[in-house]
């Protein structure tokens, strides 16, 4: 069985459109779990009224995407978890059936990264292409990757749990990056599948400047502390932090940058306790993926 997990925050009209598409899926057994992250709008009431068959979980306080997705994954009963952000739609009514077929045919594959298109169904959603290869050459190709977008994906649930699920300390942004690294570090693999398509409607809530000016510079540091060996952590952090500082100065966000650095410093002791550097073999696999190689 497939467990569809949908985190939702303040997007009642979007989540209703997605649920309509999910329940139009054919040829698959599924359960649908929506986790509302303490929305101030009418999301909870509308979902209960329009889709009473949904398993609806409501956070007592806003926890962020990582916390919200993890709650849904913990509640899932299926052996496969398919995750959708609430601002996507699904043009293919056989999408979940294709996911199921893929996992049956590829028993060693841990996760499937979906192809994300803009609402026109033709243009690539380039801001969410963080794969290690160029979008122009690989968007319509199948390849092993070190990344997936939380916007639309599928994983074997047991492997997600084993990898620790989404790192909740990050709150939002880069949480998929770390989870992908952990999946690979435990010997798993993620396959980009161009035939698995979701349309991303890029709701304004997901474009908050807070992501750019606070979470990005902070979480780049936290990711390095959590995952990378000493020297590689320094090599990763220094150029990125310098770039973010210059960008903050140019954009008038120096206070936000300082706030991000302060937050990273406050979380540093806790992260040191949780720190688990990636194995050398994992770093080599990720390096090979950047060259378009199948490790």
Question: What's the helix and strand layout?
Answer:
Blueprint lengths: L1 E7 L3 H11 L7 E7 L6 H8 L4 E4 L6 H11 L4 E5 L3 E2 L5 H11 L5 E7 L17 H4 L4 E3 L6 E5 H6 L12 H11 L4 E11 L8 H19 L2 H22 L2 H21 L5 H11 L5
Helix pairs in contact: 1-2, 8-9, 8-10, 9-10
Count of domains = 2
CATH architecture term of the largest domain: Alpha-Beta Complex
Main CATH class of the largest domain: Alpha Beta
The fold-level CATH name of the largest domain is: Spore Coat Polysaccharide Biosynthesis Protein SpsA, Chain A
Distance between the termini: 30 Å
- Number of strand segments: 9
Shape: globular
The number of helical segments is 11
CATH homologous superfamily title of the largest domain: Spore Coat Polysaccharide Biosynthesis Protein SpsA, Chain A
Mean pLDDT: 95
Describe the main β-sheet briefly: 9 strands, mixed
Uncertain stretches of 5 or more adjacent residues: none
Outline the structure in words.
- Helices cover 46% and strands 17% of the residues.
- By secondary structure, it is α/β, with parallel strands linked by helices.
- The two termini are 30 Å apart.
- It folds into two domains: 2-206, Spore Coat Polysaccharide Biosynthesis Protein SpsA, Chain A (Alpha-Beta Complex), CATH 3.90.550; 208-275, no CATH class.
- The model has no long low-confidence stretch (mean pLDDT 95).
- Strands 1, 2, 3, 4, 5, 6, 7, 8 and 9 form a nine-stranded mixed sheet that branches.
- The chain has helices spanning 12-22, 43-50, 65-75, 95-105, 135-138, 157-162, 175-185, 209-227, 230-251, 254-274, 280-290; strands spanning 2-8, 30-36, 55-58, 80-84, 88-89, 111-117, 143-145, 152-156, 190-200.
